[in-house]
Amino acid sequence: MSSRVKNIFTIAYIFIMLGGCAYAAQGQSRVILTDFRNVNLFEAFYAYDKKKNDYVFTKLDRKTYKKLSPENKAIYKRVKKSNKIYIASKRPMPDFIRINKRQDAYKINKYNLPAANALVFDFQKDKKYSTALYYALQIKKYDKKNKYPDLNYRIGALYYMLGYFDDCIPYLEKNLSLQKPFAQKDTRIMLADSYNLTAENQKNPNEYYKLALLNADKVLNNYEQNAKMLEVKYNACYNLKSYRSAMAAAESLMKLNPQSADYALKYANCRGALNDKQTELIYLQKAKNLANKGQKNEELMNEINLRLKNFGVLRK
Question: What integer is the mean pLDDT of 117-144?
Fold first, then answer.
């Protein structure tokens, strides 16, 4: 007898001894498979309790199994049929097997929120943000008891990572509206950046620049001098024609990175907007020198040269 056949007989014997033990709720309308862990046969059922409008674990023995509704038994059979046979082991299950099993569990029943929640983290970890977002939105659709209060933050963050800045804003704002928001600093950073990046496409861009500035200031005042937030503040203030505030942000950026030609140019922009042409020229020349020393940025260099040409002092 081959070792493969022996393994199959061993697993079959274990299954018989376990008596097909699972967990489910008696008299429930729906049975939902939960997450797989180290057990290679399915480990448990997750049952929906109508009275509680919640999902709970309940012990089910062989006698109680016979009382399950036809729908419940059909789900039970689908689970058993879909589950691949692996030799039981105390070692952690490989990631790809665990993820496949979670996906199978969710396909069997869309109300399996624990499996969907685990898949959000699985795919986000692998930087498969679109797939992670799909499962997060499924949880949002079926989570009637708000068992995942951080979900708005997670959906907003996934939209942000995918570059859908307009879509991420409502979810991140909902997160901030909570009594105890999740990851408040990161939420405000993403909101500030999103409002800033989408402002030009709005009918009233100034409202978006104001919201970008509000969130950027919250980060800068309560957490840290974040370069990204200073850039947002500069851009928002400059577009709102608050040139002195924009200049202060540019000064802070130059302190963080004195070798940045872009930051020197930002400072020159503010001086020019305030009609301080002498200082504007000094910082335009400084920006050109820094651009020549640093990494090549043709677009930035062309902008600096055009500005210097307008002064009539373009130098090589």
Answer: 91
